[in-house]
Amino acid sequence: MSSDTGPSLAQQIIRAITVFQAIVIVPVALLHGVIAFFGLLIPISTWGAFWILLQEIIIFLAYTSIPIIVILQWRNTYTASTALKLEACKSSLVTGLWVWWVVRMSGTGVAKTVALNGVAYAVVIVLLFYPSLINSFLQYRQVKKSEYQDREGTIELCDHYGDRREENDVLLGSVD
Fold first, then answer.
1. pLDDT at 164
2. Which residues of 4-41 are buried (b: 16+ CB within 10 A; e: fewer)?
3. Residue 52 — φ and ψ, nearest 5°?
4. Is the whole-model pTM more than 0.70?
5. pLDDT at 89 over 90
6. CA 141, CA 101: separation in Å to the nearest integer?
7. 162 CB-side CA count, 13 A
C-alpha cells in the first residue's frame, strides 16, 4: 500500500463548501448583472433611476467577485494567512451585501415575507460562508503556533555589533 498524502477530510469538505458557495452566488450575480444591463439600456431620466442603476452595478460587481475568489482558491494552494485573507474577503462581501439589503428594505414598508427572506439569507450566510472562515482562522492560528514553537528553541543573544553571546554573559560587558 502506498501512503497517500492528499488533502484531509476537513480540507475536502472545505473545498466542497467553497464550490457550493460559488454555485449559490453565480445565479444571484447573473440576476443582478441582467438587471444592471437592462438598466443601462433604459434612458436615465431621474436621479432615483441613476441611484438604482448604480446600486445594481455595485451589487453585481460584489457578487461577481465571490466566484472569482472561489476560482482562485480552487486552482491554487495558498499559505494559511492568504487563505484567511481570501475567506475574510468573501465573508465580508457577503455580509456587506446582506447589510446593504437590510438597510435598503428597511425604509420601504415591505411585507413581512420580504423581511423573512432577509433572515433566511442571513442563515445561508452563517451556514455557508462563516464555517470556511472559521476553519481558515483555525488553520492560520495552528500554523502561527507551530512557527512560534519552532522559533522558541532557537533564540540567540547578540550584542550591538552582531557578535553572539552566551546567555550567562553579563549584559553590559565584563565587569572587572
1. 54
2. eeeeeeeeeebeeebeebbeebeebbeebbebbeebee
3. -65, -40
4. no
5. yes
6. 33
7. 0
Q: How far apart are CA 164 and CA 166, in angstroms?
A: 7
Task: Find the DSSP H helices in the chain.
Answer: 9-41, 47-75, 80-106, 112-128, 130-152
- Structure-block grid coordinates of residue 25: 452566488
Q: What is the number of other CB atoms lying within 10 angstroms of the CB of residue 170?
A: 8
Buried b (16+ CB within 10 A) or exposed e, 121-157: bbeeeeebbeebbebbeebbeeeeeeeeeeeeeeeee
Region 138-145: mean pLDDT is: 88
Listed residue (10, 31, 27, 20) closest to 128, CA to CA: 20
Instruction: Phi first, then psi: give them for residue 77, nearest 5 degrees.
Output: -110, 130
Residue 141, CB-side half-sphere exposure with 13 Å CA sphere: 6
Q: How many CA atoms lie within 13 A of 66 on its CB side?
A: 29
